[in-house]
Structures are given as structure tokens and as C-alpha cells.
């Protein structure tokens, strides 16, 4: 007979999955109607030759994601509710290994299982969906290498974090949630240094931007933004995909801005400068630290919940677990995941505010909205992004405002470029009204 806590877990995970599925369907349908209504704007402003291709791309990505999510959740619940998870934990407990080692082995098994499950979907997305729409540049050998290296990285760093937390459980049984929380926050800080210098170079080459017209443009925008010219790199994203992007990462001497080579190829120099100014704003406005602080608060709540779960006898009885804290932690995380998903509309507000602030900084740095709006239109069009997400879907999933919203907001606040011409004249057709 299935226990009440197990039924609650099924209801929680299943309910969130149904919600996600409905939101995905609404988003695709809403976006299709809005794109067709704004067909001329999508063609002219985003330079999309065939808006139906954009819609087909969104449908394909959404469908694949939902199928993968349903299969993953069904298999996960089957393993937990059937008692298989408890049996595996019991078998590990019977090995005589230290409890910390048992927990790390269990996590490693979960990572490998997750990778094995996701691999066919990742391959289909890369070699069927992305290939169909002209984005894929990967070979099968490169894809396999990424899978193996990514799995290795996840095992190493996942094992380090899990081992550290479980050592805290063993050494500080009364206050381990505080110690575990501190370890996770410290690890998050450390990863901001390790990722750009150690992990990212395992997958891509990063060339400093220097000795070129682009370097002159970089120095110019640094000067305008009040920065010394620090680390700006061009990444060989085109080895894998024609998608374009840019990002800011790190702090202190490890901080750097990374521009995809595809972005450099697709945009004019002023638009690249606007993107660079936007990324610099995340450091200048302390967005990195604010996001870290918000994440730390969120993790504190999670660790408090895990403390309650691991000290409650019901979890061990309901799921047939051995009296090992790591086994209960796994179940606790299954409950916590959907709750974090449901809280996303609240937590996303901080990121949305930061993106708007960064857009403002870019417009002020560039002397008007024209360059930034061109950059946003290029990003949306080249990536076949859905410019009109459903409001409910956006609340749960988007950490950036929609492209039309960002353009409209910039033009309302910075409606003239440096020459005095209306932004709409230089920056493209008027943005469709909000729906």
C-alpha cells in the first residue's frame, strides 16, 4: 500500500508537471496568435523571413521538453514509490562504507542515471531539431565528448559538494544545516572563479579581444561606462551552434565578459557595444552580489526544510529508507524542487529588475536606445526566440523581459538617439502594442 507521504509527493511532482505542460501549451498558442497578428513587425524588425518557421521551432522545442519531463518524472516516481530507491539506499548501507561515501555514491548514481536518460533527448534536439532549423554545427564526436566531459564535471563537483555537506552532517549533527548552507554558499562563490578559468575552457576556446577594430570598440565602451579595460573574450560558440549570446561571469580579478563569436558576426559595432555595456551593468550595479544574496536566502529555507525532513521519522518509514541521513536528504530534495518551481514568479522579479536596469545603463552609456534596441532585435531574430510569451508562462520561466517589452520600454524612456532622430526611425518599425 502506498503511504500518504508518497501520494503527496506524487501529487506535488505530478501537479507541477501538469502546470508546466499547460503553461507550455498556452505559451505556444499565445505566441502563434501574437506573431501572426504582428507578422509585418516580426519580418521587418526581427528580420525573420518566415514567421511560421519561428513558430515551428518553438513548438518543436516545447514538445520535446514536455516529453522529456514527463518521462523523467514518471521514472523518478516509479523508483521512489516502488521502494527501489529505498532498496538501493539499504544496499549501500549494508556495504559497510562510511555514510559519507554511501551518500556520494548514491548521488553519483543519480547523476549518471540522469545523463543516460537525457542523452537521447539531447541528441534528438541537437541533430534533429537544431539541425532542421539551421542552428546545429556540432559533429557526433563533439557531442559525445561534451556528454562525457560534462558528466565527469558533474560527478566531480557534485561529489565534492555532497561529500562536504555529509561530512558536516556527521561532524555537526545538531547544526549541520547551518554548516551545509555555509558550504553551499561558499561553493557558489568559488564557482564564480572556477567556472570561467577551469570549467568553461573544457568546452570552448576563449580568445582575448585585442588589436582590432573590435578592441577599439571595447575600449571605447569601457571608457564610456567608467571601467578600466578588463577581461573581454570572444568564445568559439560557432563550433556547436549558430545561436548568439553574451554573458558576464566572476568577480574580482576573475571577472570577465564573454561575447559569442556568432554575436560578433551578426551585430554591428554599436550594437555589440550596447550588449557589452548591458553586461558591464551587472557588475557596476552589484547584480551579481544581489543575486547571490537572494540565492543564499533561498538555500537557507531549503536547508531548514531538509533539517525538518531528516529529523522526522515519517520519511524513513514512508519510503522504506535505512536510518541514513543522506537517504532522507534525497527525498527532501524531491519535495523541495516543485516548491522552488512554484515560487519562481516571485524569485524571477529580482532578475527582471536587474535586466531592466542593465538595459537602462546600456542606453545611457550609448547615448540613446537605438544601439540596444538593434541588439535586442538581432538576438531575437537570429535565435528564433518567441517575442510574445504568454504572461503566465513568462512569470514562471523568464528571467528577462520579453524583447518587445524591453524595446518599448527603452523607447519610452530614451526616445531620441544622439542625432535627435526618433528611435523608431533608425531603430526599426514601431513595436506592436502589448497584448
Descriptive report:
- The chain is mainly alpha-helical and 435 residues long.
- The protein has a domain at 206-288 and 359-427: Zincin-like.
- The chain contains 18 helices and four strands.
- It has a four-stranded mixed beta sheet with strand order 1-2-4-3.
- β3 (246-249) and β4 (256-260) form a beta hairpin.
- The radius of gyration is 24 Å and the shape is globular.
- The model is unreliable at 416-428 (pLDDT under 50).
- It holds the Pfam family Peptidase_M48_N.
- Zn(2+) binds at residues 278, 282, 355.
- Residues 408-419 have a biased composition (Basic and acidic residues).
List the helices and strands and how they pair.
Blueprint (H helix, E strand, L loop, with lengths): L3 H34 L1 H7 L5 H31 L2 H10 L5 H34 L7 H32 L4 H24 L6 E3 L4 H13 L6 E4 L10 E4 L6 E5 H6 L2 H16 L2 H24 L2 H6 L6 H18 L1 H23 L3 H13 L8 H7 L5 H11 L9 H5 L8
Parallel strand pairs: 2-4
Antiparallel strand pairs: 1-2, 3-4
Helix pairs in contact: 1-3, 1-13, 1-16, 3-5, 4-5, 5-6, 6-7, 7-11, 8-10, 10-14, 10-15, 11-13, 14-16, 15-17
State the gist of this model.
The chain is mostly helical. The protein is 72% helix and 4% strand.
Helix percentage: over 70%
Please name the CATH architecture of the domain at 206-288 and 359-427.
2-Layer Sandwich
Radius of gyration: 24 Å
Q: Choose one word for the global shape.
A: globular
Quote the beta fraction.
under 5%
Order of helices and strands: HHHHHHHEHEEEHHHHHHHHHH
Structural class: mainly alpha
Looking at this structure, what is the CATH superfamily of the domain at 206-288 and 359-427? Metalloproteases ("zincins"), catalytic domain
Mean pLDDT: 91
- CATH class assignment of the domain at 206-288 and 359-427: Alpha Beta
**Ends distance:** 49 Å
Low-confidence stretches: 416-428
GO molecular function: metal ion binding; metallopeptidase activity
Family: Belongs to the peptidase M48 family.
Region (Disordered): 408-435
Cofactor: Zn(2+)
Amino acid at each position: 500500500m502506498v503511504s500518504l507521504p508518497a501520494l503527496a509527493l506524487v501529487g506535488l511532482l505530478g501537479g507541477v508537471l501538469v502546470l508546466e505542460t499547460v503553461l507550455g501549451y498556452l505559451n505556444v498558442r499565445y505566441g502563434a496568435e501574437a506573431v501572426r497578428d504582428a507578422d509585418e513587425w516580426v519580418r521587418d524588425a526581427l528580420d525573420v523571413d518566415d514567421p511560421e518557421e519561428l513558430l515551428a521551432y518553438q513548438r518543436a522545442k516545447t514538445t520535446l521538453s514536455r516529453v522529456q519531463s514527463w518521462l523523467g518524472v514518471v521514472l523518478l516516481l516509479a523508483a521512489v514509490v516502488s521502494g527501489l530507491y529505498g532498496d538501493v539506499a539499504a544496499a549501500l548501507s549494508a556495504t559497510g562504507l562510511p555514510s559519507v561515501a554511501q551518500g556520494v555514491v548514491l548521488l553519483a548514481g543519480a547523476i549518471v542515471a540522469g545523463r543516460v536518460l537525457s542523452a537521447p533527448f539531447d541528441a534528438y534536439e541537437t541533430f534533429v531539431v537544431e539541425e532542421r532549423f539551421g542552428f546545429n554545427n556540432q559533429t557526433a564526436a563533439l557531442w559525445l565528448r561534451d556528454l562525457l566531459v560534462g558528466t565527469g564535471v558533474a560527478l566531480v563537483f557534485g561529489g565534492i559538494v555532497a561529500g562536504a555537506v555529509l561530512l558536516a552532517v556527521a561532524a555537526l549533527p545538531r547544526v549541520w544545516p547551518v554548516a551545509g548552507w555555509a558550504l553551499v554558499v561558499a561553493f557558489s562563490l568559488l564557482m564564480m572563479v572556477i567556472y570561467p578559468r577551469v570549467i568553461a575552457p573544457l568546452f570552448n576556446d576563449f580568445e582575448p579581444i585585442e588589436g582590432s577594430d573590435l578592441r577599439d570598440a571595447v575600449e571605447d565602451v569601457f571608457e564610456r561606462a567608467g571601467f578600466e579595460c578588463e577581461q573581454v573574450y570572444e568564445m568559439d560558440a560557432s563550433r556547436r551552434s549558430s545561436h548568439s549570446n553574451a554573458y558576464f561571469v566572476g568577480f574580482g580579478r576573475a571577472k570577465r565578459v564573454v561575447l559569442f563569436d556568432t554575436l560578433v558576426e551578426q551585430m554591428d559595432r554599436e550594437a555589440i557595444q550596447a550588449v557589452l555595456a548591458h553586461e558591464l551593468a551587472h557588475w557596476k550595479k552589484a547584480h551579481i552580489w544581489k543575486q547571490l544574496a537572494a540565492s543564499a536566502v533561498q538555500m537557507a529555507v531549503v536547508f531548514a526544510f531538509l533539517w525538518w525532513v531528516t529529523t522526522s521519522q515519517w520519511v524513513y518509514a514512508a519510503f522504506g529508507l535505512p536510518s541514513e541521513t543522506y537517504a532522507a536528504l534525497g527525498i527532501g530534495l524531491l519535495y523541495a524542487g516543485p516548491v522552488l518551481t512554484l515560487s519562481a514568479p516571485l524569485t524571477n522579479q529580482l532578475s527582471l529588475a536587474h535586466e531592466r536596469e542593465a538595459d537602462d545603463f546600456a542606453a545611457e552609456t550609448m547615448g540613446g536606445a537605438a544601439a540596444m534596441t538593434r541588439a535586442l532585435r538581432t538576438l531575437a531574430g537570429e535565435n528564433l526566440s518567441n517575442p510574445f510569451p504568454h504572461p503566465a508562462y513568462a512569470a514562471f520561466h523568464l528571467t528577462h523581459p520579453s524583447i518587445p517589452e524591453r524595446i518599448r520600454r527603452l523607447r519610452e524612456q530614451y526616445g531620441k538617439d544622439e542625432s535627435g532622430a526618433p528611435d523608431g526611425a533608425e531603430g526599426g518599425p514601431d513595436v506592436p502594442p502589448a497584448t
